[in-house]
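Technical appendix A lists one of the benchmark inputs used to test multi-chain prediction within the project. The record comprises three sequence entries:
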Amino acid sequence: MRRRRQRPIPPVSEQSSDAELLHAIAAGETSALRLLHHRHAGWLRARLRRRCADPDVVDAAIQDTFVAVWKDSDRYVETSADAAAWLWTIAVRRLLSTLRGPAHRWLSGPADELPDVATTPSAEELVLLGVEHGALGPALDRLSPELRRLIEATALDGLSVREAAKLLGIAEGTAKTRLMRARTRLRELLT
Amino acid sequence: MTTDWHLDPGLLEQYETGVLGPSRIMAVEAHLLACAGCRALIPADDAWLADSWSAVYDDIHAPRVGSIQRLLTRAGLPEHRFRLLTATPTLRWSWVLATAAVLMLAVAAARVGADSSVPIAQAFLVLAPILPVIAVSGAYGPPADPMHEITGTTPAAGPALVLWRAVSVIGVAVLMATVAAVLLPGPGWYAAAWLLPALLLCTGTLALATVLSLPVAAGILGGLWITGVLAAASDERAVASMFGPTAQLAYLVSAVLAAAVLILRRRRFDLGENR
Amino acid sequence: MTIVAVQGLAKRYGATVALDFVDMEITVGVTGLLGPNGAGKSTLLRCLATALAPDAGTIRVGGLDPAVAAQRTEVRRRIGYLPQNPGLYPNFTTYDLLDYVAVLKEITDGRQRRAEVRRVLDEVELTDRAKTKVRKLSGGMRQRLGLAQALLGDPALVVLDEPTVGLDPEQRMLFRALISRLGERRTVLLSTHQTEDVGALCERVVVMSGGRVVFEGSPRELAGVAEGQVWLSEQPPVGNAAYWRNADGFYRTIGHQPAGAEAARPSIEDGYLLLLGNAVTTGATR
């Protein structure tokens, strides 16, 4: 049975912040989950569709994401990470586990449904925010596809190197080397 | 996180249709994660959103499938029938635990008092048939089921529902009593000798319930059984003969008769039927 | 279009006559069954809902006869019933209770049942209370849950026994809004002893007294029963007619015109009281 907070939760509305909604969800408020779903399902769907062409798989991943949030919102309350980034991390892992089928539950076994670590933007991600203006854009475009995919999986999707390696079907060591190479290459291209 | 640059509908459309270059895609995605305003720009597909939410809502509310249900489903019991049976008033943990406690006490008493265990085992023998009858008395209708007026006016109401519930509670009670009977010291045949009387009392109760209410029918037959047993209690041989071969045959024949009455008059279980 | 037709319906409990050969017809929309306690309202509704078999008379629901065993199940498929004491299991959650009743209403497919439960929860505005145990619901919410279970399976006829009893004004208003929405495309039959409910909700009203139907018509026609028999005067009327002082300080009399009194517009309650013969202590209307 999940732990419920004893303190009364103020009523939630469209104006409530993500953190307030997640607190209310932890207290068992279905209405808060609905608000969170309506706020985030749209962009999650748009982004997941860039990862997977099958709309049914995407829809299932989004449903799984919010069911997982309902069951385990306490985890969020403890980490107090950025809600959007947290949701994305769950969603992308859900999508991967669906894609790889029940035989490959490694990405999200039932034991660790939700990531515990606070998902703060990585250094690369911060740089990416400047992609539109700086020289990073052309640099990324000139990066070889496998290096770029690795950057995408780690920096953008928030996967660990290990998860990224399994996603791309390469050994963890190879992924580490490639990631290092990608960073060096980017630095070269940027100077 | 603030940034001067924001997405516009044109760029979002290009992103969604997949015509952007790799770095631009990454830029859009990184920005989406950081900017709630731009996330809200993604056009909402209301029908899709409603469907997606419905699926989430159903998933988090649907009753959890427990291990007992999984076992029964594998044995061929449909999920909806399981829902009907779990709402049986007497089929609650409180009732199951109380019955189990009584049985365990009887077994414990018989084991501790090894010398005097034969009378205790005999007491068990005569009382065990009553347990399923008690269970049946609260399986359907007033006063055990507070929702009987709603239950009784649904299309599922009627003899089928009464029998399903009766069978399920009798099954559970008999199972528990059998476990206790096996654990009981005393002659081996004790463990099975009470089963036919229990069968007679249960079918008899249900047959009588086509005329009277279930609790009244259960009270009458249970009372008759106890009175008979008490009358015979002074004589150990009389008790033994109550479970002898002749008596057992008589129980079986009577139970078959009661079942025939039950089948003929089963429609009388319906509240909307004239009485 | 007649949905329910009742003819010569009679029921007695021992020496007590509950229904004294009742005839009535009910059409689409909201019909109120008005009457004092013991008038036979509940007995009539229970007979219609197939919870009780009448001693005599016939009932037709959508042309079907509940007295015939084979047709009774079909009648039950078309009726949603909220008894006066629904006895909703206190330890069930709102959702589980509806799920259970949905099974009783033969919605066996799991996916279909979940959609149906979600639909009725939405209809009575309890969507966010699905995880709450029945015993923790307020009186108004519990009553809405009772209504929700009646709506499972989308019945053509909804029978509600005293649905507004014991509700606070806010809940009563919400409940009225729900019922009037139901009446847009269904037949709703509700019993009450509150004339306000009838005035606010019902297109038709049936007044019962002593096991008989004493009036059938629109609420306006019920008020019309007292036309020309309601009076306002500044002084209390002489004689023993029933009267009371209203908020404006006038004396309101039903029955004969007291000296110096002016005729007043009759209300639904005036008509109702007059019908029951309680309004006048001496035989003013007899």
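Chain B has a mean pLDDT of 82. Chain B touches chain A through 37 residues (CB under 8 Å). Comparable benchmark entries are summarised in Table A2.
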